[in-house]
Design brief:
The complex is a heterodimer of chains A (174) and B (174). By secondary structure, chain A is α+β, with helices and mostly antiparallel strands. Chain A contains four helices and five strands. In chain A, strands 1, 2, 3, 4 and 5 form a five-stranded antiparallel beta sheet that branches. In chain A, β2 and β3 form a beta hairpin. The longest helix of chain A is centred in the first third of the chain and has 61 residues. The termini of chain A are far apart. Chain B is rod-shaped and about 170 Å long. Chain B is 53% helix and 21% strand. Chain B is α+β, with helices and mostly antiparallel strands and 174 residues long. The longest helix of chain B is centred in the first third of the chain and has 45 residues. The chains are: A alpha+beta (174), B alpha+beta (174). Chains A and B meet through α1, α2, α4 and β4 of A and α1, α2 and β1 of B.
Chain lengths: 174, 174
């Protein structure tokens, strides 16, 4: 009888020790692992959904590659002013103007969007009023998005003389 | 002294037996529980390892590249929309002025600033009647917000000199 009682006490002690020292910590670990698994699964799902939306949007964007290249040329990462000067010279002469001179470029960040740089420069041409109108129309149709900040001209003293047009042009880049 | 009559065996009480066997069962259950939880924890560890690998695959640098590209385009489109909303077409001014010019008024000087959306037009005419008519034509035009006449003078030749300060609606430049 004494032996059995002692055995019962020993067994309970072993059960308690096993439960507290082995089972319980492992169970807690298991529970937290399961929680982590659920969280990771959710994270994977969210990432998969997110990236599938991104892929869809990228595919959609490919349809508008022409428009995107226009945006790229309107807002290039670098000012690239030499090609702009060439463009002005070429198109002014095609419109009937004579390219006279180009002034210093002033670069400022836009107040509302400081990431965008605005490059402003004066430029002058000589020619007729209609040539100026043609040239303005070319500038306005250009993908480079030229802004005419100011225009000034006076009628020539002699009828044979050409007009001198002073323009301030600006364009943008990042 | 030899005992002829054997003593009855002392029987342990029934509750001790029940408790003893119950504790044995409990011990077995606890040991099994420890093994099971150990196995489950191993499985959970393997699963979380696999999920971590899967997450790494999902979060591949290529996918983040396309995300970066897309965010870049999103930003660029927003910046471009801002620029295009504020884009002014200066050539439309000339179309407007050609429509509103009095045939007997000669403009000699043109000055336009986009920032203030202001035109200064200097010129001359034969008499005050045509100058007044020109003024009224400008005043009657709904796309012109404000017209100011100044610097009215009579030249040596008898012609009337003047200066108009015109503020067109910025909508006309869109």
């Amino acid at each position: 009888m004494i032996n059995k009682t002692l055995l019962i006490i020993i067994i309970f002690f072993i059960v308690l020790s096993l439960g507290l020292l082995l089972f319980l910590p492992k169970y807690q670990n298991f529970k937290s692992s399961q929680l982590a698994i659920k969280e990771t699964e959710q994270e994977i799902k969210q990432y998969q959904n997110y990236f599938s939306k991104i892929e869809q949007a990228s595919e959609e964007l490919k349809k508008y590659s022409d428009a995107l290249s226009k945006i790229d040329s309107a807002l290039p990462p670098e000012p690239t002013l030499i090609p702009v000067y060439y463009f002005l010279q070429k198109n002014s002469s095609q419109s009937g103007l004579v390219f006279k001179e180009i002034g210093a470029v002033k670069t400022t960040a836009l107040e509302e969007k400081p990431v965008i740089q605005k490059h402003t420069f004066p430029v002058s041409f000589s020619g007729s009023y209609f040539a100026l109108k043609n040239f303005l129309s070319v500038l306005e149709k250009s993908a480079r998005l030229f802004e005419i900040e100011s225009i000034s001209f006076s009628s020539p003293r002699e009828k044979e003389e050409s007009f001198i047009f002073n323009l301030t042009i600006s364009l943008h880049s990042y | 002294m030899v005992e002829i009559i054997p003593k009855p065996q002392i029987k342990s009480p029934s509750w001790t037996n029940v408790l003893f066997y119950s504790s044995l069962v409990l011990l077995m259950i606890t040991i099994m529980g420890v093994f099971i939880i150990n196995q489950l924890q191993k499985n959970a560890f393997n699963t979380s390892q696999k999920l971590a690998e899967e997450l790494e695959k999902v979060k591949s640098p290529e996918r983040f590249d396309s995300e970066k590209k897309l965010i870049g385009y999103q930003k660029k489109i927003a910046d471009f929309s801002y620029l295009i909303q504020n884009h002014k077409l200066a050539s439309k001014l000339f179309t407007l002025l050609e429509k509103l010019s009095h045939p007997k008024v000669q403009f000699t000087n043109f000055n336009f600033t986009a920032e203030k959306v202001k035109i200064i037009l200097k010129g001359e005419t034969d008499n005050f009647l045509t100058l007044g008519q020109q003024y009224l034509i400008f005043r009657a035009e709904p796309t012109i917000k404000e017209v100011n006449l100044s610097e009215v003078s009579i030249g040596k030749s008898g012609r009337i000199g003047f200066s108009f300060e015109i503020t067109p609606s910025s909508e006309i430049l869109k």
